[in-house]
Amino acid sequence: MEDLVKKAGSVRSLFDLDGKVALVTGGGKGLGEAMALALAGAGADVVIAGKTQENNQRVADEIKDMGRASLAVEVEVRDQEKVKRMVEAVLNRFKKLDILVNSAGYAEVRPITEFPLDLWEYIMDVNVKGTFLCSREAAKVMLEQGNGKIINISSLQGFLGRAGDAAYATSKAAVNLMTMSMACEWAKNGIRVNAIAPTWCWTDLTSPKLRIDSFYNKLKQRIPIGRAGNRDDIFGMVVFLASEASDFVNGAVIPLDGGATASDGFPPVP
After folding, report:
1. Cα(97)–Cα(174) distance, rounded to whole angstroms?
2. Is the pLDDT of residue 1 over 80?
3. C-alpha span between 38 and 30 (Å, rounded)
4. In this predicted model, what pLDDT tens digit does every residue of 220-237 receive, in sequence order?
5. Of 73, 71, 9, 11, residue with least CA distance to 40
6. What's the domain count of the chain?
7. Can you give the CATH number for the domain in which 236 is found?
8. Helix crossing, 53-65 with 30-41: angle to 10°?
9. Fewer Cβ neighbours under 10 Å: the N or C end of the chain?
10. What does the angle CA 156 – CA 161 – CA 163 come to, to the nearest 5 degrees?
11. Cβ within 8 Å of residue 129, ≥6 positions away
């Protein structure tokens, strides 16, 4: 009992990421930027990786302004050689890798019978192949270290279908099962693999749709909290999954959706 009381007295330290090194793909904008900033706010040094180096550097500079070390790395997550070089760049600068957040992703919705094959393949490559390649290379480092946290970014659409979604929903369902398989294989080696599944959140990508009143009003009715997510809504979840506080959480796909998956989506019975 005394040991439990002693541990309870230091619970706050479980969320401390001081001394940790995190890599965030897709970290130059959107939810990736938000998660990178949150990890830095919790004490981690953060590498920002993505296709647009200008965006990567901007977020890296924001993190440096917060008093943490950072590095901007240009990467194409569909290319295994570039992914390998990304991880090498992290090791050259920081000598280790404690946390990987797979936030790089892409989405488009079109009538399924008119969905171009090249677009379908691109979405699957970025969201599924990219997550696989980055996780594989990061895990090689973490296996040698004997510890690590991998956080995949799924979506509410990984659980639910919708009209016009031949690729994105499919890709996120694949990410969910990939998360579980990786979690099973690497658990005994000290690596924890989990996923966050957000609903619609306000980002540069989604804002044009969310600003359509007719769409947003229907969306709010679908979410019990009554709004889309804000980027800072993901802060607590990513820090939790990156920290010691989540050491017994493994293979979970956690909704971040204001209760959307808890609701059947129908209006209240009159």
Report:
1. 25
2. no
3. 13
4. 999 999 999 999 999 999
5. 71
6. 1
7. 3.40.50.720
8. 20
9. C
10. 120
11. 77, 78
Residue 2 lies in a domain: no
Torsion of CA 245, 249, 252, 257, to 10 degrees: -30
Dist CA 255 CA 3 (whole Å): 33
HEC letters along the chain: CHHHHHHHCCHHHHHCCCCCEEEEECCCCHHHHHHHHHHHHCCCEEEEEECCHHHHHHHHHHHHHCCCCEEEEECCCCCHHHHHHHHHHHHHHHCCCCEEEECCCCCCCCCHHHCCHHHHHHHHHHHHHHHHHHHHHHHHHHHHHCCEEEEEECCHHHCCCCCCCCCHHHHHHHHHHHHHHHHHHHHHHCEEEEEEEECCECCCCCHHHHCCHHHHHHHHHHCCCCCCECHHHHHHHHHHHHCHHHCCCCCCEEEECCCHHHCCCCCCCC
Query: CA angle at residue 12 from 4 to 62, to 5 degrees?
Result: 160
Please tell me whether the overall predicted TM-score, pTM, comes out greater than 0.85 for this model: yes
**52 touches 131 (CB < 8 A):** no
The verdict on residue 263 lying in a domain is: no
Q: Per-residue pLDDT tens for 132-150?
A: 999 999 999 999 999 999 9
Is 39 among the domain residues?
Answer: yes
**Mean pLDDT for the stretch of residues 23-49:** 98
Question: Active-site residues: which are they?
Answer: 168
267, part of any domain: no
For residues 120 and 182, what is the distance between their CA atoms, to the nearest angstrom? 24
Phi, psi of 149 (to 5 degrees): -125, 125
Provide the terminal-to-terminal Cα distance of the chain, rounded to the nearest Å: 52
Structure tokens at 161: 């279908």
Whether residue 123 contacts residue 132, with contact meaning beta carbons closer than 8 Å, is answered with no
Domain that residue 92 falls in: 16-251
